[in-house]
């Protein structure tokens, strides 16, 4: 897929996830989540070419400009959208699937100092609410929803709603309901 086609795909995904989106131009110029993802693609490529210093420098510049820190080693899927974005941190060994959405203040972080896989894997279609922390080399199953301010430290099966500290499954997430699940009062902490 070419660069222009990928940008258009990102803009379409942003419009699907953000009901406040008015136009492609507004999103392209004013959405820091999109800017962070686009910069990450460049930095990730530099990381893969073993130009590690340049990749890290690029990710730090992006962090200064957007408030979103994505390590250049992280693997990010297609149609990934970060809404608002300020304070999002994605660690080096994190893996993010396709059609994933994060709100502001989300951390995909590590819990150990040993090398290897230290950060979480979010499978396709996962939504993560504001302020949630997903920590360690765990997997969040496809289609799951992580509620605002939840702290997840254990694997989660597909299509569940995770809430609380520590987070526990509180029901099933269905495709039509997943988008609104983060605002339903029974899932708040």
Please give a quick description of this structure.
The chain is α/β, with parallel strands linked by helices. The protein contains 5 helices and 15 strands. A hairpin with a 4-residue loop joins β14 (160-163) and β15.
How is this structure best described in words?
By secondary structure, this protein is an alpha/beta fold. Helix content is 32%, strand content 20%. The chain has 5 helices and 15 strands. It has helices spanning 3-17, 24-30, 32-48, 52-66, 175-181, and strands spanning 69-70, 75-76, 81-82, 89-90, 95-96, 101-102, 107-109, 121-122, 127-128, 133-135, 139-140, 145-146, 151-152, 160-163, 168-172. The strands form 3 sheets. The protein has a 6-stranded mixed β-sheet with strand order 3-6-9-12-14-15. A hairpin with a 4-residue loop joins strand 14 (160-163) and strand 15. Helix 3 (32-48) packs antiparallel against helix 4.
Structure characteristics:
single chain; 20% strand; 5 helices; six-stranded mixed beta sheet; 15 strands; 189 residues; five-stranded parallel beta sheet; alpha/beta; disordered C terminus; 32% helix
**Proportion of β residues?**
15-25%
Radius of gyration: 16 Å
Spans of at least 5 consecutive residues with low confidence: 179-189
Strand order of the largest sheet: 3-6-9-12-14-15
> Could you spell the SSE succession in H and E letters?
HHHHEEEEEEEEEEEEEEEH
Secondary-structure blueprint:
Blueprint: H1 3-17, H2 24-30, H3 32-48, H4 52-66, E1 69-70, E2 75-76, E3 81-82, E4 89-90, E5 95-96, E6 101-102, E7 107-109, E8 121-122, E9 127-128, E10 133-135, E11 139-140, E12 145-146, E13 151-152, E14 160-163, E15 168-172, H5 175-181
Helix pairs in contact: 3-4
């Amino acid at each position: 897929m070419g660069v222009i086609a990928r940008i258009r795909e990102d803009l379409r995904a942003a419009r699907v996830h953000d009901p406040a989106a008015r136009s492609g131009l507004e999103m392209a110029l004013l959405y820091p989540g999109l800017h962070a993802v686009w910069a990450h693609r460049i930095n990730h490529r530099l990381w893969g070419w073993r130009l590690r210093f340049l990749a890290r420098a690029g990710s730090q510049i992006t962090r200064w400009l957007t408030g979103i820190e994505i390590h250049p080693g992280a693997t990010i899927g297609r149609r990934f959208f970060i809404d608002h974005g300020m304070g999002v941190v994605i660690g080096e060994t994190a893996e993010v699937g396709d059609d994933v959405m994060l709100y502001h203040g989300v951390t995909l972080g590590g819990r150990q100092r040993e090398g290897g896989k230290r950060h979480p894997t979010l499978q396709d279609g996962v939504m993560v609410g504001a302020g949630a922390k997903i920590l360690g080399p765990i997997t969040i199953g496809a289609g799951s929803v992580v509620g605002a301010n939840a702290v997840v430290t254990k694997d989660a099966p597909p299509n569940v709603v995770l809430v609380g500290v520590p987070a526990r499954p509180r029901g099933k997430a269905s495709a039509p309901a997943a988008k609104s699940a983060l605002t339903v009062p029974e899932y708040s902490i």
